[in-house]
Amino acid sequence: MSQYVSRFAGTRHRYPAVPSLLRLPGRPRTPRRVAMLSVHTSPLHQPGTGDAGGMNVYIVELAKRLAAIDIEVEIFTRATTGGLAPVVELAPGVLVRHVDAGPYEGLAKEELPAQLCAFTHGVMQAWAGHRPGHYDLVHSHYWLSGHVGWLAAERWGVPLVHAMHTMAKVKNALLAEGDTPEPAARVIGETQIVSAADRLIANTTEESDELVRFYEADPGKVAVVHPGVNLDRFRPADGRAAARARLGLPKDAFIPVFAGRIQPLKAPDVLLRAAALMVDRDPSLRARMVVPVVGGPSGSGLAKPEGLQKLAAKLGIADLVRFHPPVGQERLADWFRAASVLVMPSYSESFGLVAIEAQAAGTPVVAASVGGLPVAVRDGRTGFLVQGHDPGDYARVLERFAAEPALVARMGEAAARHAESFGWDTAAAGTAEVYTAALHDHRQRAHHRRVRSHHG
């Protein structure tokens, strides 16, 4: 199927063509109200804790911006503590609905498939309290939500739009050493959702191609919409020196930062090993380098929650590495402003939202050349992309920044300019277009069924 391209604020999006719109009576219509599903992680949770991360930020920011363009959003998520209000207003036009499904605490993500039936029941109960046609469309996030969304969309007679965020086949193809492969049940589940969804939203063209290559997705159903960044929160503000003063960091130190969930997939160990190599080659760096790690253990990283601290001691750099628990978005923005450079040696990233956030704050990024990071980072202009995960390669790039403070400043300014094209308003406008296309395709199929039934 042919593609059409639209441009919003300088950002390129690719959407499937919908020639059928010309034959369908009535004007193209955006949905009034969307049921958004996030089974395994709540938009109210602190990113960087447990399974909360970039997807949480994505859902919160997208929902708020959709509401701002008159698309109401109701987010269904699993209740993880007792006593939560059944419904919480996150922002005007955005509700979070807590669904009871399984025990509140102590349930690992791997155990959640057994609770999908209970979660679906909770979603259906909420829907039953409304008049028919309350939800115009279902937008599910991650494969667990996709299965609930598939059933809900079928029952309500509305289209399903799904965002994978990460894919089992891709993760397994790029598995970090010592990490646990994604189970076959997830691969099967994702394959079913790809087939069932009316539209699939991919973060990048590469992710779109992976959906087609690994899951045989219909290219005509895949739309590319880049995630955004909150440009009001993540901005250079009052500069690096002021941020360092607020965080108690040395004014003139070289500070490469890791920010994210501590697990093999994110490879924070690569930064620590690179820092150790740098100090071995230039012992003077020990007096002027600080390596903050901002985040908590997650996923397979929970098996060895103290593993990174032990590695720092083993490498002889425990005095340089500072471990900080996950922080709120305002504080995270300060960490990015304070950093000389953000380091993202991930084995897999569907987009790498943290990279855009850091750049918006005026900080260059050194990242693995995987997933969406080549879109997020302009290699040689706003940071550097590294092939592979050899600590020596990262050390060589970081040594350039340590030796040339002017490079930090120059690339930081370019990074802030680059990030300006990734506002959430842009992402919301692109997502609304995908919704509109899905609605009209769905209406046309229903129209054709009625015609066939009439003539049959």
From TrEMBL:
Mg(2+) binds at F336, R337, A339, T363. Residues 242-417 form the Glycosyl transferase family domain. It catalyses: 1D-myo-inositol 3-phosphate + UDP-N-acetyl-alpha-D-glucosamine = 1D-myo-inositol 2-acetamido-2-deoxy-alpha-D-glucopyranoside 3-phosphate + UDP + H(+). Pfam families: Glyco_trans_4_4, Glycos_transf_1. GO terms for molecular function: acetylglucosaminyltransferase activity; D-inositol-3-phosphate glycosyltransferase activity; magnesium ion binding. Its EC number is 2.4.1.250. UDP-N-acetyl-alpha-D-glucosamine binds at Q46, P47, G54, R261, K266, V327, E349, E357. The keyword Glycosyltransferase applies. One of its GO terms (biological process) is mycothiol biosynthetic process. It comes from the Bacteria. SUPFAM superfamilies: UDP-Glycosyltransferase/glycogen phosphorylase (SSF53756). Residues 53-228 form the Glycosyltransferase subfamily 4-like N-terminal domain. Keywords: Glycosyltransferase, Magnesium, Metal-binding, Transferase. Homodimer. Belongs to the glycosyltransferase group 1 family. MshA subfamily. Catalyzes the transfer of a N-acetyl-glucosamine moiety to 1D-myo-inositol 3-phosphate to produce 1D-myo-inositol 2-acetamido-2-deoxy-glucopyranoside 3-phosphate in the mycothiol biosynthesis pathway. HAMAP family: MshA. This is D-inositol-3-phosphate glycosyltransferase. It comes from Streptomyces termitum. The gene is mshA.
